[in-house]
Specification:
Number of strands: 7
CATH superfamily of the largest domain: HUPs
CATH class of the largest domain: Alpha Beta
CATH architecture of the largest domain: 3-Layer(aba) Sandwich
Distance between the termini: 33 Å
Radius of gyration: 19 Å
Strand content: 5-15%
Order of helices and strands: HEHEHEHEHHHHEEHHE
């Protein structure tokens, strides 16, 4: 299908849902899906549900509130804490499954209370290329992924977002802060705050695409390859070293391979069954 056909298919899928609650983070995918759902169903049959937690930075939450308001959609905000989910804080490879299962259950509970027919998430076609245990939770709970069903890729979603005038069209991909830790490294509120503080600094310094990965006393910085020269500028480098050490890291390392989605999944060996 070409992009026009995919967009038409997305509208058909959303129309068939009748009324929806969307797990809404304010990222590229969920924002475009929210906008498309409003166009297909009307704002009165669409609800955005956002769960706040230690793994979800305040700036991301604030942006989600503004986006829901801009689109004229009711937003339900529920306080959640993944660190209290059994098995989550120990950070096993299936960590994302536990998190998504709780989030989707919150959405299903609200759908039942409101009499809404379907719960949606913002998974897209590119998500099939990486290790995503959260997809298993979506299947178990019959959560629909209209962007994936319409076979839309991340870049296509960005293109459609630009056409729709959405401010998220060029937004950096966001994954919860728990994804910054190697599997098996315990996740704590204090460590999440460390990562959030350091990533906020990179954002404030003008970096567009980045991650700070936690390795005990070492922070491993990933930035887009076209930003590598910027980060080794003496003034920028000196500021980062000072601020990262104040955040609690002893060593600050730059990953020469640059930013890449799912870098913490490298080295995992998966077995069928």
């Amino acid at each position: 299908m070409n992009l026009i056909e995919k967009q038409r298919r997305l509208t058909e899928i959303l129309t068939s849902c009748d009324s929806v609650i969307l797990a809404f983070s304010g990222g590229v995918d969920s924002t475009y899906l929210l906008q498309a759902a409003v166009e297909a169903l009307g704002a009165d049959r669409v609800v955005a549900l956002t769960a706040t937690s230690p793994t979800y930075p305040a700036r991301e939450f604030n942006e989600s509130v503004e986006l829901a308001r801009r689109l004229g959609v009711r937003q339900i905000v529920i306080a959640s804490n993944e660190l209290e989910i059994p098995g989550f804080a120990d950070n096993p490879p299936r960590r994302c499954y536990h998190c998504k299962k709780e989030l989707f259950q919150l959405c299903l509970d609200q759908a039942s209370k409101l009499g809404f027919r379907q719960v949606l998430d913002g998974a897209n076609l590119d998500d099939l290329a990486d290790y995503r245990p959260g997809r298993e939770a979506a299947k178990e709970l019959s959560i629909r992924s209209p962007l994936l069903e319409a076979m839309l890729t991340k870049e296509e979603i960005r293109t459609l977002s630009r056409q729709a005038g959405l401010p998220t069209a060029d937004k950096q991909p966001f994954a919860c802060l728990a994804s910054r830790f190697p599997y098996g490294t315990r996740i704590t509120a204090e460590r999440l705050e460390q990562i959030d503080r350091c990533e906020s600094l990179l954002r404030d310094m003008g970096f567009a695409t980045f991650r700070v990965r936690y390795h005990d006393d070492t922070a491993r910085i990933e930035v887009a390859l076209d930003e590598l020269s910027k980060i080794i500028d003496d003034e920028v480098r000196s500021t980062l070293v000072t601020e990262f050490k104040q955040a609690g890291f002893t060593y600050i390392a730059l990953d020469l391979e640059g930013y890449r989605t799912g870098s913490m999944n490298q080295g995992l060996v998966f077995q069928e069954g």
